[in-house]
C-alpha cells in the first residue's frame, strides 16, 4: 500500500471504489458481484456496499434482469467532459486504420493509465485469421501486452524500477517470463529496436508488436500495436512490420505535439 493510502483519510475506500469502477467499465457485458469482489480482492459484503454507494451517485448501474453491474450514466457525462482534454482517439483514428490496412493485421491504440494500459481503438485488418486478445476497454499491466511493454521501455529507469517494485505479483499472475530478469531483458531489446515484440506470452500463438507514442513533453503516454497469429510475424516480415509501426507511431506523436490539447 502506498504512503498516500496510509496517510490520507478515506484514501483506502476511494482506492477500492476506483478499482471496482475500473473492473465494471472493463466488462463489456456487465460483471457479477462475485467476479467483481474476487478481482478487486474484496469480500462480497464490502464490494456490494461500495457498489451500492457508487450506484446512488449514478456511477454504476445494476441490470434488474441479470443483476450484473454496468457503468452508470454519470460516468458517461464525466467522460464527455474529460474527453475534451484527454481523448486522442479522433487524432489517431485514421492512423490506426492506416496501420491495419497496410499490415493487414488488427491494429490498436492504447493509453497509459497509472500502471496499466487501456485499449481505446481497434481496427481490423483484412487477414481473415485474427487474434482477439485485445479490444476496446481491455486493460493490461505495463510490460505484459505489447503496448504496455513499449510504453514501459521508454519510461525513465527510476520509474521502471519503482513499477517493478510495486508489482512483484507479475510472474505469479502472468507467468515466469514476466519475472524481473526476463522482463528487463525484453525492455532493453524493445528500447534498442524501437518497438516491442510479444511472442505469444499472453495467449499461445497470438503475437503482438507495439510502438510508444509520446506527448509534447516526450513522455510515452500511448502506444500503437498490432496483433495476429504467429506465422504472420516471422523473421522475414517482422522488420517490415516494425518499420511500418514506428512510422505510424511517429506520425501520431507529431500530430499530438502539434495539437492544442
Automatic annotation (TrEMBL):
**What highest taxon heads this organism's lineage?**
Bacteria
Q: Which GO terms describe its molecular function?
A: DNA binding; DNA-binding transcription factor activity
Which Pfam families does the annotation name? Answer: HTH_IclR (PF09339), IclR_C (PF01614)
Q: Does the keyword Membrane apply?
A: no
Q: Where is the HTH iclR-type domain?
A: 11-73
Could you tell me the keywords of this UniProt record?
DNA-binding, Glycerol metabolism, Transcription, Transcription regulation
Decide whether keyword Nucleotide-binding is in the record.
no
Question: Which Gene Ontology BP annotations are present?
Answer: glycerol metabolic process; negative regulation of DNA-templated transcription
Domain IclR-ED: residue ranges:
74-258
- What this chain does, per the record? May be an activator protein for the gylABX operon.
Name of the featured protein: Glycerol operon regulatory protein
